[in-house]
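Deliverable D4.2, example record:
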Amino acid sequence: MGVESVLDDALRKTSITDSVRHRVDSESSYSSDYSIQQHNMDRIVEGKRVLTLDGYSLSVKDLVDCHDGHCRLELSPLSRERIIKARKFLEKIAGEHKIVYGITTGFGTFANVTICPADIRQLQLNLIRSHATGYGDPLSPEKARMLLALRINVLAKGHSGISLQNVEKLHLY
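Output generated by the structure prediction step:
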């Protein structure tokens, strides 16, 4: 099975989840973000096509272009707004000491363990460290570019609570 068919299958499976989430998210700007994506399709900066990530319109062709190094990534303005809004909400929850899975509680079997406010930063650092390990050979730069584009595109939806600064750091690579 080729890379394109694997990516097509993965994108098809996630599109069902995305369409449900889109219906639930009353403030979603899918259609206007999508038109931004289509409008910028031919914009070229420093010899590379500008790929505006909005969380909804990334295509297999876009990923192949990322693989080949033909794209320069940017976030749509509406994605930036969604990311900032989600981050503010996350900070509000943490500041109010509400019990929220993975933010003020442990994970998995430790979901019922409430984390004291002084240890919340350490919990998040431990989570990052636990996911920052790898197995096997490192990915090629081409595959890493594709995966970064996928990750940034998911974060562009504004559902994670990540800071805009961290998303911007990702697309510098």
